[in-house]
Write a structure and sequence with these properties.
- The complex is a heterodimer of chains A (about 1000) and B (about 210).
- Chain A contains 24 helices and 49 strands.
- By secondary structure, chain A is α+β, with helices and mostly antiparallel strands.
- Chain A folds into seven domains: about 110 residues, Ubiquitin-like (UB roll) (Roll); about 190 residues, FAD/NAD(P)-binding domain, CATH 3.50.50.60; about 130 residues, FAD/NAD(P)-binding domain, CATH 3.50.50; about 80 residues, BFD-like [2Fe-2S]-binding domain (Arc Repressor Mutant, subunit A, Orthogonal Bundle); about 150 residues, Gyrase A, domain 2 (2-Layer Sandwich), CATH 3.30.1360.120; about 90 residues, Aminomethyltransferase beta-barrel domains (Alpha-Beta Plaits, 2-Layer Sandwich), CATH 3.30.70.1400; about 100 residues, Aminomethyltransferase beta-barrel domains (Elongation Factor Tu (Ef-tu), domain 3).
- In chain A, the strands form 13 sheets. In chain A, strands 8, 9, 12, 13, 14, 15 and 28 form a seven-stranded mixed sheet that branches. A six-stranded mixed sheet of chain A has the order 40-41-42-39-33-43, sandwiched between helices. A six-stranded antiparallel sheet of chain A has the order 45-46-47-44-49-48.
- In chain A, helix 8 runs parallel beside helix 9 and helix 12 packs across helix 14.
- Chain B contains four helices and eleven strands.
- The termini of chain B are far apart.
- Classes of the chains: A alpha+beta (about 1000), B alpha+beta (about 210).
- Chain A: InterPro entries: 2Fe-2S-bd_N, FAD/NAD-bd_sf, FAD/NAD-binding_dom, GcvT/YgfZ/DmdA, GcvT/YgfZ_C, GcvT_C, GCVT_N, Sarcosine_oxidase_asu.
C-alpha cells in the first residue's frame, strides 16, 4: 500500500528497509526508523481510537510520551498481547500488529459515539458517581458495562512467553534525558572519570537535536550529535540506555529505569533467555533531570477532532520521519514554535493557510522568516473552534482579548484539514514530583519548574530553559555542580557554538474563549485521554470542588497512564481563571509513578514461577521427594506434610503414621526448628529474663521447656533449651519464629542489657534434626549408637553426646508426641547418612516416616500447643493453663511479667485453652469455628470462643479439638455449640486439653 | 560443670557427607561461557565473636590463624598458605573459613589462646561456598544483589553480608577475577537456581 503522506526525501527513516504491519486488521507498510504513529500518519490513518468516555473519534496529537489518543493494544498472538502502548513510542517492526483499545464495533463506526454527541451534556464529570450510585446492589451490573465501554486495553489471557529481569546499578551521576542538556552533561561528566548512566525514553539519543534545523559549530546539529554519541560510547564508565524510561523517582535518589530491550524488534524476544524488558534499579549520587519540556496544546472547541496536532509534533513528523500529516495547515499559537511548524510544512511542499497568533506584535526571527516566505499571519487572534467530525475541515478564528476572556472583531472560517496548536511549553517535572517536591511556578517562563530535591539538578527544558545555547550551557553547569557534589574535580569542556535566535515573547494562552459560554460551546478538551473538558472543570468548581486535588478527582484530570502530560497545566490555568486566582495559588496536583505505563512483568522481574519466593530445603529433602512426600509450606520451608503409600488419601496416610508412632516407631525431619547457640558467662541469667520460667538450677545436659512472652505478657514463642555447659546453651524456637526470636534476643541484649556477657548465633542450618519417636525408639537407636540408652542413665529431658551411625551426634530425649523420643542432631552434611542408617532397620522396627500433619495430631492429643495456631498474640501462659511454666518469684524481672499483673490479664473470663470432644464422634470440627453457649439464641449470637486445632484421632477413634473458650477452665463437662454456615450446629463437651496419657507414662519408659 | 561444650563433629572415613548442593546436576555452557560456577563443598566454618578493642583477643586470633583479625568493616583477610580466611561480619563478629576437617582443632586452639568474653561456634554444616568467575561474573552479581559490586566500591579483600535475590548471602572478593558466595544450606538450592537462571544470557558452565 502506498504511503500518501510520506515525503520522497528527508527524515531519518531507512527507505531501503520497508516493514509491513497491520492496524485494526488492515495491512500497511512503513520503514525502519518509523514509530507506529509516524507509519500510521504516513498511511493517512486519521482515526486511531475512540475516546474513553464520549467515544469520540480521535487521531494522533503528539509525537512522544504525551500522546493521549494513540494508545493501542499490541501483539499478533494472544500470549503476546500488550495493552496501553503509545503508538508514538512504539518502534515499527516487521509484522507488528496493533489494534485500537476502544471502539465497538470499530473505531470508524462506534455505537457509543452517539452518547458522545447526543448524550454529551448528560455525561458531565461525576456522571458515573451520580448515575450509578443507587441501588448499590446494581453496581456490579453497571460496572461490567462501564468497563467494557471504557477500557484501555486488556491483559493477555495466556502465559507470557517472555522473561523480564532486574539489574542493579550504583553511579555518581544519573542523567535522565539525552537531549542537548543531558548529552552535554554526560560529555562533561565522562571527562571526570565519574560513573555515569544516561538514559532516554526514545529509540535513539538526541531529543530535540534529532529534528532541529539549528546548527552547532556551524554544521547540522545531527552531526554534532553523532560525534557526541561516539565519544560517550568510548568511555568505560558511561552506560548509555536508549529506549529506557525513568518511570519512578524514589527516596534517596533511587530511580527505576524501564528499558525496553526487544520491544522494537518483535512481539516477543527474538533470542532465548533474552529479557524483553529490564528494570534497572539505580542508586545515584546525583540525578540530572534533563527531561526536557512538553508543548501544551491550546484548548478550543472540538480540539479533539482528528487533524488537531501539536506544533512540535508536526515538525517532528516532517523532519524525523518525512511524514506530513495533512494537506492544508492552520497554526494557532502563542509562541514562535508555531512558525517553525508552518515553515516545515511549507518546506515539505504543502499548503499553509495561515498562522493565527494570539500575540499583537510577534517579531522573532522565525516570524520574519514566515513573513518572507509569504505565509499569511493573523495576529491578535486564535482558533476558537475546529469544524469536522472524523477529520478537521475548517478552523474558525477570531480576534481574541485574553484578559477579558472574550472574542472580539470579525469571525473568519479557514478551510483546512490540519490545525497545529502551541500554547507554550511546560517543563517535564513529573519525576521530581514523584519525590514529593511540589513544582514551583516560573512566571517568566509561564510554567512550573521542578521543586528542590536533594541531589537532583534540573537542566535544559526541564528547568524552563529553551534556547539551544542556554540549554547546552545548563547541561554543562549541572554536570559540573553534580561532579563537585560527588567529590570530582571540575573539568574543562568546550561548548559547541550555537546561534542565538531572536524569539518573540510567548503569551499565556491556555483556553480560547468561544462565542457561547464554555458550558454551551462545543466540547473544549483539556485532557484528551480522560475526556475532561473545560466545561467539566467549570462544573466541578461550581459544585464546590475548589482545591485542584478535588477538581482532579471529580473530573479525572491527569488520571491513569496519562499523568497529566498534556492537560494538567491547561486544567489548572482554567480552574485558576474560573476561581479568580493565579496559577501558583491554584497549584498543581501530584504526579505519581509510573511516568508511562510499564508491564507488570518488568516489575516482577525473575521473581516469578519457581523463583517467586525462596524454597528452603532440609538436608533430607531429596529423600522426602523420593519417598513421595506431600509437602507443606512452613514459612519458606518445604516440610513433608505426610508420606502417602500407594493410593492412600491424606486421612488414611495420617491414620497409619499416627498408629505407627503410638505402636512402633516413627521418624520426623525436625531440622527446620530454629536453633540458637548461646554462649557467655551471663547466658543463664539472660534466659531467665526472656523466658517466663526459671533457669537458675538447670543442670548440665538437662533440657527444659521454655515459654517466651512479649512485653505485653502474650505468648510469642516456645521451645526446649538445653544446658550444654555452665556458659553454653542451645535454644530451640518454632520453625517460623527462628529469625524473629534471634532478633528479639539481640534487641533486648543490645538495647536493655548490654552489660550481660552473652552471644547468640544461629545454628539452624548447621544441625540436622531427626526425631525418632514411639515405643520402639530405644530399640531402633540402640542399633546404631554407642550411647547408653538405658532408662536410668539417659533420662527424659536430658542430652547426650555420642556416635550415631558413625557420626558424632547430640541426642536429646525430649518429646512432642508423648511417646519415648530421641532427637538426633548431627552436622547437616551427615544427615542423609544417619537417616539411611536408621532406615536399614525399617522393617525390623516398623520405622515409619511421618510429616507435619501427623505431628500435629500427636501433639494435640497430648495438649501441646503450637504458638501461632493455638495462640494468636492475645493469649497469656495462664490462658493456656501453663501456670507451672511461670516463675513470678524470680529475683530479676522478666519480659511480660508486669503485663501479667494487669487487671485485664487477671480476668476470670478470659479465653482459656480447653479440649473439645464432639458429641458425634465422627465429626471433626472446623478450625476457626466460633463457639456459642446457647445455640437457640437469636442472631447475632454471642461468640464465646473458637476452635484452634482440630483433627481426627485414630488413637481415640474420634474427632477432637483444642479451643479457646471464655472461662473455659471452669467449664469442664459443659456443652458448647458451633453453628456452621450450612445451618448445622455441632455440639461438643469441654474436656481437659490432654486427651492421652495425662501422667506422661508413655514418654517416661 | 565445664563452661562450654566443644566436640569434634567430623565423622570418620566411610561416612558419606552431602553438601547442600549434592542434589543438583551441573551444566556445561558451550565453548566460551560468560559465567563459571563451582561449589567448594565441605569447607570448615567458624563464627567468632569477641571484642575487637581487646588487644589480647586480637593477638590471640592472629596467633592461631596466622593472619590479623580484620577490624575494618567488611575486610577480608586471607592466609593462602593455610587456605584459610577471616571476614569481618559485624563489629563483634567474624566468619572464619578453613580447610574442611580443621574446624575442631582450630576451635580448640582459639579457646586455648583466648580468654574473657568471646564465643566460637562451628557452623560448618550450615554453609557452602560458591565461586563465580568468567567475563560476565560481575554482570551476574548486578542482576542478583543491590549491593554495589563495582571495583571502586568492592576491591579485592572485601566481603559483605547482603541481599542475594530474595535470600541473603555473603559476597567475597578474594582475587581480581574471583567472586565467592557463602550461602546458607537451606537457601543453597534457591540461590543455585537463581544463578543458573540469571546466567543463561551469558552462557553458564556449572560443575557442581
Amino acid at each position: 500500500m502506498s504511503q500518501p503522506n510520506r515525503l520522497n526525501q528527508g527524515g531519518s527513516i531507512d527507505r531501503s528497509k520497508p516493514l509491513d504491519f497491520t492496524f485494526n486488521g488492515l495491512r500497511y507498510s512503513g520503514y525502519e526508523g518509523d514509530t507506529l504513529a509516524s507509519a500510521l500518519l504516513a498511511n493517512g490513518v486519521d482515526i486511531v481510537n475512540r475516546s474513553f468516555k464520549y467515544s469520540r473519534p480521535r487521531g494522533i496529537v503528539a509525537s512522544g510520551a504525551a500522546e493521549p489518543n494513540a494508545i493501542v493494544q499490541l501483539g499478533s498472538t494472544e500470549a503476546a498481547q500488550v495493552p496501553n502502548v503509545r503508538a508514538t513510542q512504539q518502534a515499527l517492526y516487521q509484522g507488528l500488529s496493533a489494534r485500537s483499545t476502544n471502539g465497538w464495533p470499530n473505531v470508524n463506526h462506534d455505537a457509543m459515539g452517539l452518547l458522545g454527541k447526543l448524550g454529551g451534556p448528560m455525561m458531565g464529570p461525576g456522571f458515573y458517581y451520580k448515575t450509578f450510585m443507587a441501588p448499590a446492589s446494581m453496581w456490579m451490573t453497571y460496572e461490567k458495562f462501564i468497563r467494557k465501554a471504557a477500557g484501555l486495553g486488556r491483559a493477555p489471557q495466556e502465559k507470557d512467553p517472555d522473561i523480564y529481569d532486574h539489574y542493579n546499578h550504583h553511579c555518581d551521576l544519573l542523567i535522565i534525558g539525552a537531549g542537548p542538556a543531558g548529552l552535554m552533561a554526560a560529555l562533561t561528566a565522562a571527562r571526570s572519570g565519574a560513573r555515569v548512566i544516561i538514559c532516554d525514553e526514545q529509540e535513539t539519543f538526541g531529543g530535540s537535536l534529532l529534528e532541529t534545523a539549528d546548527l552547532l559549530d556551524g554544521k547540522p546539529a545531527q552531526q554534532w550529535l553523532a560525534n557526541a554519541l561516539v565519544q560517550l560510547s568510548d568511555c568505560g564508565d558511561v552506560l548509555m540506555l536508549p529506549r529506557t524510561t525513568a518511570n519512578g523517582y524514589h527516596d534517596h535518589n533511587f530511580v527505576t529505569l524501564h528499558e525496553r530491550r526487544t520491544e522494537h524488534l518483535a512481539d516477543t524476544a527474538p533470542e532465548a533467555h533474552q529479557s524483553r524488558s529490564r528494570m534497572h534499579h539505580v542508586r545515584a549520587g546525583q540525578v540530572i533531570l534533563a527531561t526536557g519540556s512538553q508543548e501544551r496544546p491550546v484548548v478550543y472547541a472540538n480540539n479533539d477532532v482528528p487533524g488537531n496536532l501539536l506544533c512540535s509534533a508536526v515538525s517532528c513528523y516532517i523532519r524525523r520521519y518525512a511524514v506530513v500529516p495533512g494537506q492544508k495547515l492552520v497554526v494557532t499559537t502563542a509562541t514562535d514554535i508555531g512558525y517553525q511548524a508552518a515553515l516545515d510544512w511549507l518546506d515539505a511542499g504543502r499548503e499553509v493557510v495561515a498562522v493565527v497568533d494570539c500575540r499583537a506584535n510577534p517579531d522573532g526571527d522565525r516570524v520574519k522568516q514566515a513573513r518572507q516566505k509569504g505565509i499569511r499571519i493573523i495576529t491578535g487572534s486564535a482558533v476558537f473552534e475546529a469544524k469536522g467530525s472524523k477529520r478537521v475541515t475548517a478552523a474558525r478564528i477570531a480576534a481574541v482579548d485574553l484578559d477579558a476572556f472574550t472574542l472580539t472583531g470579525q469571525l473568519e472560517e479557514l478551510a483546512c484539514d490540519t490545525i497545529a496548536s502551541s500554547g507554550g511549553f511546560s517543563p517535564v517535572v513529573h519525576l521530581s514530583a514523584h519525590t514529593g517536591a511540589r513544582p514551583v511556578w516560573n512566571e517568566e517562563a509561564l510554567g512550573f519548574v521542578p521543586g528542590r530535591v536533594k541531589g537532583m539538578i534540573p537542566a535544559g527544558g526541564a528547568d524552563a530553559i529553551y534556547s539551544l545555547p542556554a540549554v547546552l550551557e545548563s547541561g554543562l553547569q549541572a554536570a559540573q555542580q553534580a561532579l563537585q557534589s560527588c567529590g570530582y574535580a571540575a573539568v574543562s569542556v568546550d561548548l559547541p557554538k550555537a546561534s542565538q535566535r531572536i524569539e518573540s515573547k510567548s503569551a499565556a494562552l491556555f483556553q480560547v474563549p468561544h462565542l457561547k459560554p464554555t458550558s454551551r460551546a462545543p466540547k473544549q478538551f483539556v485532557d484528551l485521554q480522560n475526556d475532561v473538558t473545560a466545561a467539566g472543570i467549570e462544573l466541578a468548581t461550581r459544585e464546590g470542588f475548589e482545591s485542584i486535588e478535588h477538581v482532579k478527582r471529580y473530573t479525572a484530570l491527569g488520571f491513569g497512564t496519562d499523568q497529566g502530560k498534556l492537560g494538567n497545566i491547561n486544567g489548572m490555568a482554567i480552574a485558576a481563571r474560573i476561581l479568580g486566582q493565579t496559577i501558583p495559588e491554584t497549584g498543581t496536583t501530584v504526579f505519581r509513578p509510573n511516568y508511562t505505563g510499564i508491564t507488570f512483568g518488568a516489575i516482577a522481574g525473575r521473581h516469578c514461577g519457581e523463583l517467586f519466593d525462596p524454597e528452603r530445603y532440609t538436608a533430607l529433602h531429596a529423600w522426602h521427594l523420593k519417598r513421595g512426600a506431600k509437602f507443606e509450606d512452613v514459612g519458606q520451608w518445604k516440610r513433608p506434610w505426610y508420606f502417602p503409600v500407594g493410593n492412600e488419601t491424606m486421612h488414611e496416610a495420617v491414620a497409619r503414621e499416627c498408629q505407627a508412632v503410638r505402636e512402633k516407631v516413627g521418624i520426623l525431619d525436625a531440622s527446620t526448628l530454629g536453633k540458637i547457640d548461646i554462649q557467655g558467662a551471663d547466658a543463664r541469667e539472660f534466659l531467665g529474663r526472656v523466658y517466663t520460667n526459671k533457669w537458675a538450677q538447670l543442670g548440665l545436659n538437662k533440657c527444659r521447656y521454655g515459654l517466651m512472652c512479649k512485653d505485653d505478657g502474650m505468648v510469642m514463642d516456645d521451645g526446649v533449651t538445653t544446658c550444654l555447659g555452665d556458659n553454653h546453651f542451645l535454644m530451640t524456637t518454632t520453625t517460623g519464629g527462628a529469625a524473629a526470636i534471634l532478633d528479639w534476643l539481640e534487641l533486648w541484649h543490645q538495647t536493655e542489657w548490654p552489660e550481660l556477657e552473652v552471644y547468640f548465633n544461629s545454628v539452624t542450618d548447621h544441625w540436622a534434626t531427626m526425631t525418632i519417636t514411639g515405643p520402639r525408639a530405644r530399640d531402633l537407636l540402640s542399633e546404631v549408637t554407642d550411647i547408653d540408652l538405658s532408662k536410668d542413665s539417659f533420662k527424659f529431658m536430658e542430652c547426650r553426646e555420642g556416635m550415631v551411625a558413625g557420626v558424632p551426634a547430640r541426642v536429646y530425649r525430649i518429646s512432642f508426641t508423648g511417646e519415648l523420643t530421641y532427637e538426633i542432631n548431627v552436622q547437616a552434611n551427615y544427615a542423609m547418612h544417619v537417616w539411611n542408617a536408621l532406615f536399614e532397620h525399617e522393617s525390623t522396627y516398623g520405622l515409619t516416616p511421618y510429616g507435619t500433619e501427623t505431628m500435629h495430631v500427636l501433639r494435640a492429643e497430648k495438649g501441646f500447643i503450637i504458638v501461632g495456631q493455638d495462640t494468636d498474640g492475645s493469649v497469656t501462659p495462664e490462658d493456656l493453663g501453663m501456670q507451672w511454666c511461670v516463675g513470678y518469684d524470680k529475683p530479676f524481672s522478666w519480659i511480660g511479667k508486669r503485663a501479667l499483673s494487669r487487671p485485664d490479664t487477671r480476668r476470670k473470663d478470659r479465653k482459656q485453652l480447653v479440649g473439645l470432644l464432639p458429641t458425634d464422634p465422627s465429626v471433626v470440627l472446623q478450625e476457626g469455628a466460633q463457639i456459642v453457649f446457647d445455640p437457640k439464641q437469636s442472631i447475632p449470637m454471642k461468640m464465646k470462643g473458637h476452635v484452634t486445632s482440630s483433627y481426627y484421632s485414630p488413637t481415640l477413634g474420634q474427632g477432637f479439638a483444642l479451643a479457646l473458650v471464655m472461662g473455659g477452665a471452669e467449664r469442664m463437662g459443659e456443652k458448647v455449640y458451633m453453628p456452621m454456615a450450612d445451618g448445622r450446629v455441632h455440639e461438643a463437651e469441654i474436656v481437659s486439653p490432654i486427651f492421652l496419657d495425662p501422667k506422661g507414662e508413655r514418654q517416661n519408659v | 560443670m565445664s563452661n562450654v561444650a566443644v566436640f569434634d563433629q567430623n565423622a570418620g572415613a566411610g561416612v558419606l557427607a552431602e553438601s547442600p548442593l549434592s542434589h543438583v546436576s551441573g551444566r556445561k555452557g558451550g565453548s566460551s561461557p560468560g559465567v563459571i560456577l563451582r561449589e567448594k563443598a565441605f569447607m570448615g566454618y567458624l563464627t567468632l565473636r569477641g571484642n575487637a578493642a581487646d588487644a589480647a583477643f586480637c593477638e590471640g586470633v592472629e596467633q592461631v590463624l596466622g593472619m590479623p583479625l580484620p577490624t575494618a568493616p567488611m575486610a577480608l583477610h586471607q592466609n593462602t598458605q593455610k587456605g584459610s580466611s577471616i571476614l569481618w561480619i559485624s563489629p563483634d563478629e567474624w566468619l572464619i573459613l578453613l580447610p574442611g576437617g580443621t574446624e575442631y582443632e582450630t576451635e580448640l586452639a582459639l579457646r586455648a589462646e583466648l580468654s574473657g568474653h568471646f564465643a566460637v561456634v562451628n557452623v560448618s554444616g550450615g554453609l557452602t561456598l560458591l565461586t563465580v568467575t568468567g567475563p560476565d561474573a560481575r554482570h551476574l552479581l548486578h542482576k542478583s544483589t543491590g549491593y554495589d559490586v563495582h571495583p571502586r566500591n568492592f576491591p579485592v579483600g572485601k566481603g559483605v553480608t547482603t541481599t542475594f535475590a530474595k535470600a541473603t548471602a555473603i559476597i567475597r572478593r578474594p582475587s581480581e577475577t574471583t567472586w565467592e558466595l557463602v550461602v546458607r544450606r537451606s537457601f543453597a538450592d534457591y540461590c543455585y537456581r537463581w544463578l543458573v537462571d540469571a546466567s543463561r544470557e551469558f552462557g553458564l558452565d556449572a560443575e557442581i
